[in-house]
Amino acid sequence: MPDPSAGGGSPYDLLTPQAMLEAIESAYGLSLDGTFYQFPSYVNRVYGVRADTGSEYVVKFYRPGRWSTESIAEEHEFVLDCADAEVPVVAPIADDDGCTLQLVDVATESGALQEFAFSLYEKRGGRGFDAERDEDWFRLGSLAGRVHAVGRERDAPGRLLCTPGDSTARFVAELRDSGVVHPEIAAELFAVLGSGIDAISPLFDGVALQRIHGDFHRGNVLERGDEGLLLIDFDDTMMGPPIQDLWLLLPDHAWDSRRELTHVVDGYTRFCDFDHRSLRLIEPLRFMRMVYYLAWSALQRDDRRFRESNPDWGGRAYWIRELEDLRTQLAMVAEDLAD
């Protein structure tokens, strides 16, 4: 999905704290006390705010051009479905008309308007969940199973399809069109990407896809003491194979995480059936994730914070490293499938 900021700075440069606070107050009828602080997030912008009553909220401003309003609505629908089923998630707050997605126009220097979509959430604290015991992995699998049991209830046609021919091919095309790959590396890199997609695509033939979280790693799971685990950040909701949400939980490659994977699957099957044949998709999905990360990084390249955190991004040495990593991963895919 093209980023309107590409080559011309970040669209978020238009959003001032005052503009955001006024947008929140207008949409939700709140009176805010001026508290305003930022959470780490590259793709979207996420901030903490507080009402005069002392109630604390988190607001997310979506990156323009990344998702349509219809696809964001499908993300919200999934989260609300989970909340209705008493799965521990943080649901977006609806306004007086029942809408969870708000829109605000901000003027550019030329006088044109840039539209931003945003949503508001109750602030829910928690600590990172450090899975160590067998029971911890079982709990993570159980949470994934509960989410997927809800995910199967309906489709999300406007979200990304997690298959090589759809999502990965699209990300490769975006990288090619953006011109970010160093010219000395580009031909070789795109040849490797193309051969990788060709090699893994047949593995997805006939694989059932459903609504999944899409970014179900342990960083998106919080521990809330007696309340248990809390799953956050459904921004990457997609239609994909359920194994996508399980392998992201693992501390290492599947063959080096057999104990953890066994307990994750055991917890998962308390709530959902599990197709053990899908284990062969883990390393291909890891390759797809690597391509996704390259496209994700390219999307951020004009953001000041990203440039400061990744000063070497996009240079010749960077792309040489990425090319070798992709080759190594494809070799792992071939080795795994040969066993």
Describe the structure using short key phrases:
Transferase(Phosphotransferase), domain 1; disordered N terminus; 339 residues; single chain; 11 strands; Phosphorylase Kinase, domain 1
Count of separate structural domains: 2
Helix content: 40-55%
Shape: globular
Strand order of the largest sheet: 1-2-3-5-4
Low-confidence stretches: 1-8
Distance between the termini: 37 Å
Mean pLDDT over the full residue set: 92
Largest beta sheet, briefly? 5 strands, antiparallel
CATH class of the largest domain: Mainly Alpha
Total strand count, please?
11
CATH superfamily of the largest domain: Transferase(Phosphotransferase) domain 1
CATH topology group of the largest domain:
Transferase(Phosphotransferase), domain 1
Second-tier CATH architecture of the largest domain: Orthogonal Bundle
Going by helix content, strand content and strand pairing, the class is: alpha+beta
* Strand-residue proportion: 15-25%
Order of helices and strands: HEEEHEEEHEHHEEEEHHHHH
Cα radius of gyration in angstroms: 21 Å
Number of helices: 10
Q: Could you give a quick summary of the protein structure above?
A:
The protein has 339 residues and is α+β, with helices and mostly antiparallel strands. It contains ten helices and eleven strands.
Write structural notes for this entry:
With 339 residues, this protein is of the alpha+beta class. The protein has two domains: 11-124, Phosphorylase Kinase, domain 1 (2-Layer Sandwich); 134-338, Transferase(Phosphotransferase) domain 1 (Transferase(Phosphotransferase), domain 1, Orthogonal Bundle). The protein is 42% helix and 16% strand. It contains ten helices and eleven strands. Strands 1-2-3-5-4 form a five-stranded antiparallel β-sheet, with helices on one face. Helix 3 crosses helix 7 (258-268). The longest helix has 23 residues, at 316-338. The two termini are 37 Å apart.
